[in-house]
Amino acid sequence: MCLTALSCMLFPSADATPHHPSQLRKRLLGVCASGIGGGVEKVLFEIELQKSKMAVSSSASGALLDCLWSVGACSVKHRFLPRGYESFRHLRALRWDWAFSEVYFLYKLLMVVLMQDAWHDAFTWPLLVFLVSACVYPLASSCAHTFSTMSTRARHVCFFFDYGALSFYSLGSAITYSAYVIPDKWVNSTFHLYYIPIAVVNTVICTALACYSRFPECQSPKLGKMLRILAFAYPYLFDNIPVFYRIFMCTGEGCTDNETNPLHYRHTALAFLTAFLFATHLPERLAPGCFDYIGHSHQLFHVCAIIGTHFQMQAIELDMAVRRQWLQAHGPPITFANTLGAALLCVCLSLCVIYTFSLPLYWAPARKSKRRRTKTPAKVSN
Length: 382
Known about the structure:
Rhopdopsin 7-helix transmembrane proteins; disordered N terminus; mainly alpha
């Protein structure tokens, strides 16, 4: 059933008296249970569109807002996942993919802080930034998937923070690559000099483009998906230029060919597998309904991303240990500005971007309610 038919079912006539709140609730929950319309976001969009066309009384409007929460609490439907992958039961049962990784990364972070004297050893600061970013992005993603079902507005804002956390993780990777992974022949080069500043700019672009991709998604889901893939593929490819050159292209002296390279191969392979699963929606595309709870692409790319981050962390720590003396003698000094300072700047700029994209979600309903209040006395006087 198309959205137009759905709107006719919920609102039979624009001139008719609004239904009783209990009837509206039953209709909306019935829509959510049957999976009509291809997604809660489209359902909410259509309901808001119909509300703007109708002269709804204040009591009925309040009932609609209450029913909108009920719709938002339902599973977010997907074309190949009829039962949805964000139902509350699923979230409670299968959030292990982020929970275990969060505990593991937090343990690694505490070990660096407590065992390696991170407060006085500036050489560990890039690793510290990376571990913080590795702790933040699983936590932000888990919170986004958990609380996004509350409402359409909450869904957008939650995933804005999720995108910001992924951008922060991208910058954390760039900072560690600049400090520990970059090939010997590129140390102190022009590329090395501007590598982190460009990575900071890419972080802001990534967050802004990923946030913007949610707005055209309702009218054109493919466009929104393409923009989101581009938003994260571009900074990943740029950040990994030193790794790609080192393990695929560099020959001869100065290529830093050591025992860390196999770990970089594994991380790279898992990163591309993660992107492949996110873009193709396999395996649920081949058997819709069979992978609603376990084994769908969203869960698999979470697992691949975490395992890839684990190999990335091992490679960074090994490069840090093996190359420490040479890098401290020949590399640029590691300072607050090119480690913790860049990370703090990234966080501030990403929060500004998130605030900019979140503001219209709160400003538009407030403006509509203000207009409604100003028009009410005129209607009463007539």
